[in-house]
Amino acid sequence: MRPLVTLRSLSVTYAGRDHAALKPLDLDILDGEKLAVIGESGSGKSTLALAIAGLLPATARIGGDLAWPEIRAAGRRRPQGGRDFGFVFQDSAASLDPMMPIGTQIAEVARAHLGLGWRQAREQAKSLLARVRLPDPDSVMGAYPHQLSGGQKQRVAIAAAIAAGPRLLIADEATSALDTIVQAEIVGLIRRLVEENGMTLLFVSHDIALAAELCDRIAVFRDGDMVELGATNQIISQPRHAYTRALLAAHIGLDAEPLLAGARHG
Amino acid sequence: MDKPLLTVSGLTRHFPRSATRVAAVDGVSFHIEPGETLALAGPSGSGKSTVAQLLLRLIDAEAGSITFKGEDWLALRGAALRARRRDLQLVFQDSLAAFNPRTTVARALDAPLRIHGLAPRSERPSRIAALLERVGLSPMLQHQAIHEISGGQRQRVAIARAIATRPSLIVLDEAVSALDVSLRGKILDLLLDLQQQEKIAYLFISHDLAVVRAFAHRVAILDKGRIMEQGDARKIIDAPQSDTGKALVAAIPALPAKA
Amino acid sequence: MRGLFRFFRKPETVAGILILAILALMALASPLLFPGDPQAIAGPALLPPFQDWSLPLGTDRLGRDVLAELFYGARTSLAVGLAAAAAALALGAVIGTLAGFAGGIADDALMRLTDAFQTVPGFLLALAFVSVVGPSLMVVVIAIALSAWTGPARVARAEVLSIRERDYVAAARVAGMHPLEIAFREVLPNALPPVLALSSIIVAGAVLTEAALSFLGLGDPNRVTWGGMIAEGRAVLRSAPYLSIVPGIALVSTVLGVYLAGEGIVETAAVRRGLS
């Protein structure tokens, strides 16, 4: 598979900090793959997502090279949000304008990047809302973000992210603020949309089991370093790095040994 | 068998929401024995947080009764209620929001000791140090500002604050949900250790049934303000009977079976 | 240390601080530089400035040293400005916190009280108060505070309404803390920053109100005030304009200095909170 994005010695240090949030990193995001970036807080996983999206603060010091080979070949210098990639944040409030109706927000993305007229853009928005399985797209078109539940807002955020048909979908802890049932639904939605549109997926999460269910490759990060990268099967069944093993061991699944000693009545 | 520590019966509270009144909690009944952990699980909007708020008297119940240590808990008011609060404490999900942004670790732990007159001023520093050690932190942490310490340390301080008054029951409101995976197990171990030593009961609110299965004795599954099923945690989660229970269990991401 | 450097980065802030520093020096140094009564006759009447270097700014209608009066006037302006603003902020913060935290009938009652005070133009309120009670420095301070507390009260209440819903306030209730202790120990200190952001406007307003009251003859008659000096200069405005212009410039500079420095502080504090 051809690489969609290539990172060579990419490093990021935020202003006012002396240690790097992301240490020099070499990574290829392959066209059409579903890549998970796993780590705990401070691992640099979100920094990586923001760097690829060009969303780092202007004061951050960025080293190394981040390239989109196809965009460079086409003569454009920089990837465009909405057109080349879509970004879904953990907090949908970061994606949605609280003062604008949902339909207008999604239509704006379509208009800006696809050059559609208003009516066409709104039709596009409505069909997107149906694609993300929102019940009653007509009424959602005119609704405001605060009238929707967390899961519904995230569906809208995903619709806005894919409105202009980007090649890459970046989900930065997109399900971490949702309860397990909604999380499973959103993950299923992401899987379906990515496969239907032939998109590449960069899935940032702290939940290794969730990543393993969804993605083909997993990159494990710790303190700004990528400690392991490999196919999902290999990472789960034959982890090479001690930290990966520790993460897997710490995961509490349905088959985990109960922590309780035994009967409750003493 | 001893009488239950806590008995909740027919607890009801509505929230006015435009035209229709939504029952956030509708006739919820359960009990907790001394020293046991009852988990309250359910999807978001199921009312589990509202149950906690009603129990902690942060909002008022419209109907129902709560008996805590043999007393009518809902009838208490003013100074009597404040005094009894030492027996029922709370740990939040967000440890940063749970503390006054301007406070230090020492001041945060001093407050419950001072309010309930548990130690004269001269003794408090040593009690605070003992509390910090009990939750696995160095007493040197006392003088740090609350935002200077790490999330894991802060949650331990929150637990120290909760046990400072030696309560019989602690409400753990998604208390480990926001923690890193590697910390989660350690905090759960600490909580179990405290439970065994001090015979503290827990009301463990969580949407993660895998953790509930590992940590709780019994579980009550909520949806739309009602209890769908309750009973032994492992029995229910291994074989849920209610639709909500089945959906919650099915939604848990599972590590693929090792090849 | 880093915070201080940021503080000094904007030229306007530096200018403001410089002006305030000069003002403070004037106020503090006045008894040293001009020992004795500034209202004593120091030379011939209506001496223009820059003629006699022992009287650099000349003399007024009665022969009093204008420069000495200027310096002593700084003491009054600064003292009244700061004291009145502090009183207004304290009173407003307390009332706003009580209203926001208590809610219900107490909130309604206190807000109606705030409305009542707010509908009366501040200056007229101060004027009426001083006229009734009598002119003295303390009365002027109280009068200005009464006219300026409503702004801080509303800002404090708005902050408190938001803070009330935070987890740490619930934690204090669960801990069994008494409501008054929660209001003043947990809530008020966190509600203060936006209230304090009003301080530069309030100090500036207080300085101007005091000057206006003195101009009208309602200031403390035993003290030298810039407003009083301007009033005295009115009679000879055409022949000796410097008598009114000099204290006028001092007044404008003070208000400007307070405002620039205050804005600088607010911005630094906001940046610091934004970055953390």
- What is the 3D form of chain A? globular
Helix content class of chain C? over 70%
What Rg of chain A, in angstroms, do the CA atoms define? 20 Å
Mean pLDDT rating of chain C:
88
Structural class of chain C: mainly alpha
Q: Kindly state the mean pLDDT of chain A as a whole number?
A: 91
Largest interface: A-B, 42 and 43 residues
Uncertain spans of chain C, ≥5 residues at pLDDT below 50?
A: none
Report the strand count of chain A: 9
Sheet of most strands of chain C: none
Strand coverage percent of chain C: under 5%
List the total number of helices of chain C: 12
Which terms would index this structure?
heterotrimer; A: 266 residues; alpha/beta; 6-stranded mixed β-sheet; 3-stranded antiparallel β-sheet; 37% helix; globular; C: 276 residues; mainly alpha; 12 helices; 75% helix; elongated
Walkthrough of the structure:
The complex is a heterotrimer of chains A (266), B (259) and C (276). Chain A has 266 residues and is an alpha/beta fold. Chain A has helices at 45-52, 69-73, 102-114, 118-131, 137-142, 150-162, 180-197, 208-214, 232-237, 242-250; strands at residues 3-13, 22-30, 34-38, 61-67, 85-88, 168-172, 200-205, 217-222, 225-231. Helices cover 34% and strands 25% of the residues of chain B. Chain B has helices at 48-55, 78-84, 105-115, 124-134, 151-163, 181-198, 209-215, 233-238, 243-250, and strands at residues 6-17, 20-32, 37-41, 63-68, 71-72, 88-91, 169-173, 201-206, 218-223, 226-232. In chain B, helix 6 (181-198) links the parallel strand 7 (169-173) and strand 8. The longest helix of chain B is centred in the C-terminal third of the chain and has 18 residues, at 181-198. Chain C has helices at 2-7, 11-33, 66-102, 104-119, 122-133, 137-148, 150-163, 167-174, 179-196, 199-215, 226-234, 242-275. Helix content of chain C is 75%, strand content 0%. Chain C starts with a helix and ends with a helix. Chain C is elongated. The A-B interface holds A 40-41, 149-151, 178-184, 187, 206-210, 212-213, 232-233, 236-237, 246-248, 250-261, 264-266 and B 1, 33, 35-37, 43-45, 151, 180-182, 184-185, 188-189, 192, 196, 199, 207-211, 213-217, 234, 237, 247-256, 258-259.
